[in-house]
Inverse folding.
């Protein structure tokens, strides 16, 4: 979520004219991969919570 | 911008799905649904994952972030009408990323995929000659200037047809199941991505989606000009279908044949570039 926050904040600050375009693009290039991998890490199936195999009654 | 990046990723994955579907239909197979590549990415992202014992942990994870990062940069350069050289510098960097993917895992299949990625760097040379040929006409490497040139003189596809063909071959060499797709050929299992699974593979799929969108849209902007979004989508679809025909009807070349063909294309492009240059100087 830090990646998304950084990207969205940089976008807003860029629109307000405070952040130059090159700095906005640099923030985006760094934050988008972090956002994607962070999102996937958040929703992926965690280890150690495996299903109990069906072993009959 | 993040929303646009996600949209571009999903568009690229959808186009890759259409690519697979068209190839299958040409080969008289039902093929997967067109959204299969999107499902593929989501499927990997939901799975649990681990890193092989033989892998370099930092490189194994870091290369995925680099892969997404460089194509994010390329997408940004394309949208802002930046330099074509930056986009093709990133294209070259992607070779190093593929190499990093292959070497980081410690798997022989991954390593061979990485090595093939390096030897297929021959495909980049026609690209640079193609870019140079464009610059002879437009006097600029900026996409915004190239688009402006085409608004006055008409599409570069007609003015510099051999350059368009060379760049088409470069894009073909990046499409899966193509004659030049030696980095992912089946004798290497999945080539450089064999050992990346779970979220790391999903990250690679995100990179592939972005890469496909950037390469196809850049081709259209450079050789056809600025198009409305619907026409751009239609153009990308048409381009993918034509690439699918080329992939479906051509056998995968052996690594040495692949490099030989690409080197021949480079030779022809060099001759074309020389003729253009002499014409301009005369």
């Amino acid at each position: 979520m830090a990646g998304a926050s950084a990207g969205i904040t940089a976008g807003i600050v860029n629109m307000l004219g405070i952040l130059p375009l090159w700095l906005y693009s640099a923030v985006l290039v760094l934050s988008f991969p972090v956002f994607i991998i962070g999102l996937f890490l958040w929703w992926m199936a965690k280890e150690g919570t495996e299903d109990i195999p069906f072993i009959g009654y | 911008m993040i929303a646009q990046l996600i949209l571009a990723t999903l568009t690229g994955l959808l186009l890759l799905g259409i690519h697979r579907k068209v190839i299958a239909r040409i080969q008289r197979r039902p093929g997967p649904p067109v959204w299969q590549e999107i499902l593929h990415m989501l499927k990997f992202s939901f799975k649990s994952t681990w890193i092989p014992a033989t892998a370099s942990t930092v490189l194994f994870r870091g290369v995925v972030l680099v892969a997404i990062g460089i194509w994010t940069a390329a997408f940004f350069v394309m949208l802002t009408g930046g330099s074509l050289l930056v986009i093709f510098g990133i294209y070259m960097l992607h070779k190093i990323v593929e190499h990093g993917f292959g070497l980081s895992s410690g798997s022989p299949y991954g390593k061979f995929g990485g090595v093939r990625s390096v030897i297929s760097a021959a495909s980049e040379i026609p690209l640079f000659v193609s870019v140079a040929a464009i610059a002879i006409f437009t006097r600029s490497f900026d996409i915004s200037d190239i688009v402006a040139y085409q608004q006055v003189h008409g599409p570069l596809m007609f003015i510099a047809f051999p350059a368009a063909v060379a760049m088409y071959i470069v894009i073909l060499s990046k499409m899966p199941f193509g004659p030049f797709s030696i980095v992912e050929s089946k004798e290497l299992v999945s080539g450089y991505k064999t050992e990346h699974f779970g979220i790391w593979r999903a990250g690679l799929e995100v990179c592939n989606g972005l890469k496909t969108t950037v390469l196809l849209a850049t081709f259209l902007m450079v050789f056809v000009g600025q198009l409305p979004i619907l026409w751009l989508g239609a153009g990308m679809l048409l381009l993918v279908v034509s690439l699918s025909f080329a992939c479906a009807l051509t056998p995968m070349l052996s690594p040495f044949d692949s490099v030989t063909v690409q080197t021949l294309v480079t030779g022809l492009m060099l001759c074309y570039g020389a003729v253009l240059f002499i014409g301009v100087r005369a």
Summary: Helices of chain A lie at 2-15, 21-43. Residues 2-43 of chain A form one domain. Chain A has a mean pLDDT of 73. Chain A is about 65% helix and 0% strand.
